[in-house]
Amino acid sequence: MAEFYSQLFNGLVLGLLFGVIALGFMLILGVMEVINFTHGALFAIGAYFALTLQPYLGYWASLIIAPLVVGIIGLFIEWSAVRRVYGKDPLFGLLMTLGMAMAFEEIIRIFWGKIGYSIAAPKFVAGPIDLGFIWYSKYRLFMAALALVLIGLVWIFLEKTPYGAIIKAGVSDSEMVLALGKNLRRIRTVVFGLGAALAGIAGVIAGPMWSLKPTMGWEVLMPAFVIVVIGGIGSFWGALIGGLIVGLSKSLSILVWPRLSDLSMYLIMAIVLVARPRGLMGQKSLLEQ
Amino acid sequence: MVRYFRHPMFITFAVFLILPAFIMRLGGMTLAIEVMIWVIFVMGFNILLGYTGLPSFGHGLFFGTGAYIFGLIQQNIIAGTWIPILGSMLFCGMIAGIVGLFLARKRGIYFALLTIALTQMFFFIAFLWDGVTGGENGLMGIERYPLTLFGLFSIPIEGILSYYYFVFVILMVSLILLWKIVHSPLGSVLYATKQNEVRAKYLGYNAVLYKWIALVISGIFPGLAGALYAMLMHGAFANPMHWTKSGDAVMMVLVGGGLNNFFGPILGAAIFIALRDIISSITENWYLFYGLLIVFIILFLPEGILGYFRVGHASGREQVVEEV
Questions:
Q1: What distance in Å separates residue A208's CA from the closest CA in chain B?
Q2: How far apart are CA A189 and CA B1, in angstroms?
């Protein structure tokens, strides 16, 4: 039973982290209509920045600074290249960000080398804690708390600020937002930066749990795709629920048949697609046209 | 007569016909066969991508499946060449038909997202189901049996040169077939669906059905290519089913002639495979150059190389661009 509980907790923690990653991915997908392949690479870069910065700045400062730098990289990507493919064949944005993601992977390999690293958990949450029924890693609980805070912040931003209202409107109909006189160009740049920063901070948070290697970005990119398909495009709660489903399926399937772990989320996705083609929380969206 | 000789199709056939004379001694035969196989794959795929306008990122699925099915039929049912090839094509067409039931109603970016996720699902199935597919090691021991027809004659294709010409003949037949499809009424409807699906519907065409047909066609040819690839490598592997390989196919279309060019993929496949071979032998970081090249092409050569020189654009059709 202890193994079940610990896998359950692992799944929830992983699911919340996936939720953060998928939210950023989905915001960009919704507002820009671009499948952002660099999302995984930005996650990896966030983790690597944390690796380099933490010895000098400590945990908290690098938790703020690394995502900021990644956000700035995101702004640069959008400003320099991605904005040139808006409104063109969806393939272009997809391929362009795929090309960048490949380049980023190699850049990581050049700067940090091929070998894997691991980051030590910060001192105040190192080691396990006795929860009564199991001993569980303090850092993972801390991760879950951080992820929840982030998800809460994104929710407040989207639901309670005028900027969030514009972004949500942009997800459902970007042309109408333009027609209403909003500066769509700037909104898109900001959203891209924001999404990138979310990927970056997820990378920093995940660092001590993940093993850092140049290809780590692809390990979160695919779950992000699947989460968006399961949850439905453009739905905040869909991304969160999808994230939890994917996280739980990945860890709980280890109990049944370890090799199923990689496949399980795709099987769930296939079932969801058959039952609800737009995803669990998805509504009819302009992206289908 | 002259106009036939200047036709890109004739030039293509002529080049591939005499190519072995130049590269046989350089040892580039395997590479040249690989190019021809990719041409079959990518041109069949382009029926969907270019002519129907559905951005699939998952056609490596059919390439990989075609290879597996070829090997499985050859090793378990009949030790020949033709039946396994036909079986591969049929099976891939069937998978495309089933997957198409879900995909044909989708469009644009959501279509792309779904194809990536679905192909990755099949990749993991192939990878994990090692009792059938050989898992990580692949399905080994695929043979190139002599070609026979009702026991009348027997042509060995085990040698690299004879296999080259075997693939060459299949390439010719495939290209002529695809040319016929593109220039048939069916091709026109597909192209109309791409330009304006709503208008095609109002003209009385069942757009979803036609998109489904395009999907099936675009599944069959990669299946054929996969079977040929299995014969070339003497094995079938999960790797081609990874979505990045499907990305390579999309790149070959774009590099060659953009989305509206029948012959673009031939040039694209040749350049892509040659570049990959050259750059990856010079540097370890081939993906850095490949990635930057993709960005460069999207930014500056969205119509591909042939499009840049205004060759064969949209097969002579008027391109109607709808500005949004």
A1: 27
A2: 57
Residue B214 · residue B208 · CB < 8 Å: no
- Per-residue tokens: A190: 């900001």
Residue of chain A whose Cα is closest to the Cα of B284:
A106
- B51 DSSP assignment: I
ipTM summary value = 0.82
Interface of A with B in 237-276 (CB under 8 A): 259-260, 262-263, 266-267, 269-270, 273-274
Q: Residue A146 is encoded by which pair of tokens?
A: 């951080």
Backbone dihedral angles phi then psi of residue B282, each to the nearest 5 degrees: -85, -45
Mutate: best of B295, B297, B322, B324, partner A, most A CBs <10 A: B295
The answer to whether the CB of A108 falls within 8 A of the CB of A214 is: yes
Q: What is the pLDDT of residue B157?
A: 84
Cβ neighbours around A234 below 10 Å, total: 24
Chain centre distance of CA B220? 9
B104 touches B208 (CB < 8 A): yes
How much is the pTM?
0.86
Write out the two tokens for B288.
């850095």
- A260: nearest CA partner in chain B: B128
The 8-class DSSP code of residue A211 comes to P
What are the pLDDT digits (tens) for B24-70? 777 788 899 999 999 999 999 999 988 888 888 889 999 999 999 99
